[in-house]
Amino acid sequence: MFLASRPHPDFRIGPLFVVANVGPDLGPVTFTVAWSLTPEPGHRAADIKQDLFLLWPGEITEATAPGQADPTLVPYVEQRGFTVISSGRLLLRSRDRLQLGTTLPGEPIAEAASFVTYVRQGPVQAGPGTFIKVPWSSTLVDPLAVMSLNMSFRNLIGPKPATWWEELFWGRRYVLTAGFGDVGSLALPLYPLYFEHRDRLVHLAREFSLVIVSFADSDHLRIEEIAPASATRRLSRVRAGAELVSMPLVAAEGITPQLLKVQFSYFSGRIAWRPILVSLVLLMLGNLAGFILLSKDVAHLMRTRLHVRRGEPVFVRHGGVMLPRDVIDQIVPGTTTHADVLALCGPPDEDRVRRGAPGLSRSLVYRATRRIPRRRLAVGRLATVARWDEELYELEIELIGDRVTAVQSRVSHAKAAS
Fold first, then answer.
1. Model confidence at 320, in pLDDT bands (50, 70, 90)?
2. Where are the domains of the chain?
3. Domain 2-268 bears CATH identifier 3.40.50
């Protein structure tokens, strides 16, 4: 925002052009501010003749003109309780109306602007501000030219808050805000100076004014969001490979911040590969998961509905060794001992002990299961299965003392679960 030297100025700023230049290195942002002064109706341009002051939220990286800043500027800021961190002079230029919108910088004038960058005193720092003094020059009221000021600011581009997933998919995205009439939050060092001199605020004239953000290397630029909706974007007509985002400035009586906010990112290569690669990885993982689930379904279908005939299926024990018929025939009541049973059949699935007359008795139980397919259609050895039946086999060997007294076997049939 602009401040006059005297209260209640009888002139306005207009036209005003604020141009921010952004490069793919995301370094300091170079601003070009071009403006002229327009007297209020009933006043003459010759009566303005006073210095202007410009408040800017940010820190100037370096001076653009030789020499020291105006000797009154640093004490002026320090007397108000601020700490000056840098100062210097800035080159002023005059740009003819025919040079507007071109890459021509304009002609330097004899006067130079002075600046101080300062912060609030105390351990908690809310960011720097810059106070610029523009000395009076007839260029300010030249109806066929504008005053032009170039300056570079650091730390104006910040990362957009995002989740780890958004950064993985899109990469790091950045935000730049440029505009007119903004003093930032109350914690910033600009507001105290504005509050002290708010009666010297210079309003915007009803002239054609713009805020422009120029992005270099547009082939590797992705702009995601622009605010407000009145802003437009287009390719530059004078700079090759540049893309412009612009917003018109509207005259207002009060201090109404008019800000252009752009969310963007730069990428390397011919196209932005990161979203494509992440999408391909997700697609492959989805297909792999589908293949695994489908494989399980197909395997289950083949196990339950297809059968290759290889003769009668063998008994499948839950544990221990197989119990063929010739092994069972070797168990003779009254002769076979407990040790013989364990040697022939292995550990039992169940060991029961009963106390009563005529004494201590014991039962060793062995179980086995086999599945039997009920075929529907058959082609050679391959057959479709209507259902599976199960034969549940149980062998119970009773012992009194150490001798086998009885051998009992049971076979039951059931419909197998699919």
1. very low
2. 2-268, 272-306, 309-415
3. no
